[in-house]
Amino acid sequence: MCLSPSRAPDELDTIEMAFHLRSSKFRHVYGKPFRREQCYENVRLTRNAHDSNFCDVNPFFIAIVTESAGGGSFIVLPLEKTGRIDINVPRVCGHAGAVMDIKWNPFNDHIIASGSDDNTVKLWQIPEKGLKVSLSEWQVDLHGHQRRVTYIDWHPTAASIILSASIDLKCILWNVEQAEPVNVINCHCDTIHSISWSRDGGLFSTTSKDRKLRIIDPRSGECAMETECHLGTKGAKSVFLGDTHRVMTSGFSRLGERQLAIWDIKNISQPLTRIVVDNSNGVLIPFYDHDTKVVFTAGKGDGNIRYYEMDNEAPFCHYLHEYMSSAPQKGLGVMPKRGCDPQKCEIMRFYKLHAAKNFVEPISMIVPRKSEDFQEDIFPPTASSVSSLTADEWISGQNREPILISMKDGRLDHAPTITTYKAITGSIHEKNPIQRANTVPTEVKHRPQEEGRTNIPASLKNIKRLSTNEEYVSISSNDRPFVNDKIAVFESKKTYTEPIVVSPRQKNMEKNVWSPAPTIPPDVIANGIQGKSEHDLQKAYFNQMEEIKSLKEQITLKDKRINLLENELRKMKEQSCAGPGESDY
Length: 585
Description:
Strand 34 and strand 35 form a beta hairpin. The longest helix has 44 residues, at 534-577. The termini are far apart. Strands 1, 2, 6, 28, 29 and 30 form a 6-stranded mixed sheet that branches. Strands 8-9-10-11-33 form a 5-stranded antiparallel sheet, with no helix packed on it. The chain is globular. The protein is an alpha+beta fold. The protein has 8 helices and 35 strands.
């Protein structure tokens, strides 16, 4: 083909740019399904039409929500137990309603949480070798929602913090160590469709039926930013794009087209980009891999998985390829990166629930490489199973990035810096949440303590408020509270003269009773600190923390006892008010 000599140079440059291919190491990623003998057959998948994934995976177990009568249940299988599954396989079956969502604890591979149609969130302890008999005794039972719990999600960096969303339009932040709510978020006006944490857990995003995308500060419960994301009436989903301060949403246009949009949380009025995917009807669920900066999208009822690479410059999102299959999917479980196989260059592994048959199929997303050496460019250090913060540290206002682990030798990286200047005491919401997310990492600066006040964790301050609120009752199975993996059994008698039977460890802890110290002049405190070694100060600090922990446990036990007494008194009043015939009935 000859080009006309009269054609302008700008037109020639445009032709060359039209055929320019963007360079990417993930352009040729392909999906490889496992062989049939490495799949899971004869699994009675749930028939629930909810748009969660009904499956979750960690490096040891796979959990799948199953169909059951008279309550909700799910099965937990070791990953190596493939092939045909026995129809009478042991199940986790303690819910009174259908199970809507399940999530493994990212910092304990033997703890799984489940949200159910019975308005509760329950935590379950799975034995190291898997279930031998059906499990009906939970470890923690969280009551607070008035309607079914639709979504749950663990905090990405803080231990024992979980977020739940419900049809009652509430999001509740729980501290499962104390089995108590940390905060209740009431900023939604319609049904919540998704929840997603930021990488350091300082913010989370939600989408709802009113077509709004909201960025929420979980500690204050305030909506920091909100905007209308997709104009269609069907469900929308959102996912935080790592530490980039951007959020991706998937939804529908007014014409029913499936869309993807990327938003900058610092200026959320308009999307950075909006992409039309296709005209299918299934809800698109996005999955983000922070290590490779790749987003995988899968639609309910589709057989395809599309993947896009994220970029810091316009157009911010680049289509790579798609895995195509004729079998529709009901949900997808995602293996954490630490469970993927770097020798096979596996950057992501999905567990596909086949909608048309009782079949679960693993699918590996592989980057083709000729060399068998470890590929450092596609396997940077990834999030480990070690939490960066305790629950009380996070509640007090601290944010940290995840602790990383090497995919090559399993060595933990150095602990990340604290990314907030807030101290353990004092207000933690003086600054705008978006500004707090952008705070330059600095050392923690402790505020001067007011005279007569003590450094009490925020979760302890909530105990007095919660003990008088009947809406939030924290108990464990068979009226047994969960306290540091030890069960304290309450003997509920009508006369209430029986003492509380506790474990030996609890008896030892009762000996160390913490109480607020009286006001001491500053000069006396300074004189007492002088001459103390760093080791002595650390020892005194940890002793004080143990005393605080002991006080929390004792208050939990007493609150439980009070609840039992109130319930028994209520029953006695009902019986006394009822007639003789009604009472016998």
